[in-house]
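Lab notebook: predicted structure, single chain.

Context: the supervisor wants predicted structures on file for every construct in the current expression panel, including those that have not yet been purified. This is the next one on the list. No modifications to the sequence; it matches the entry in the shared construct table.
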Amino acid sequence: QVQLVESGGGLVQAGDSLKLSCAASGRTFNNYRVGWFRQAPGKEREFVAAISWSVGNTYYADSVKGRFTISRDNAKNTVYLQMNSLKPEDTAVYYCAAGAVMTVLTRPGSYALWGQGTQVTVSS
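Prediction complete. Output recorded below exactly as produced.
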């Protein structure tokens, strides 16, 4: 059984940094695209960033470009989301997801595997 487990969320102040982790158990991320999404209360789940595991290409939402960095550690089968210069509007539950490469990367429906989510709260 494949599981994605996120960690690293928390409560921080505006301008602080957090690093989220997404570890896969039961299989590797080979040939997958791994993405981070977030969902704030009352809002739809939105794309944050993604990385193609095999090639390492990265993609970002405009709202986080220049502040967030997605990366991977092949040996640990783990994807990271480094979040710097956090803003109150970044407050949400952050989800890690894995899906096939040849799909629309910003659509949640393109990802078949999801983690349980980790809360990120940024106070002003």
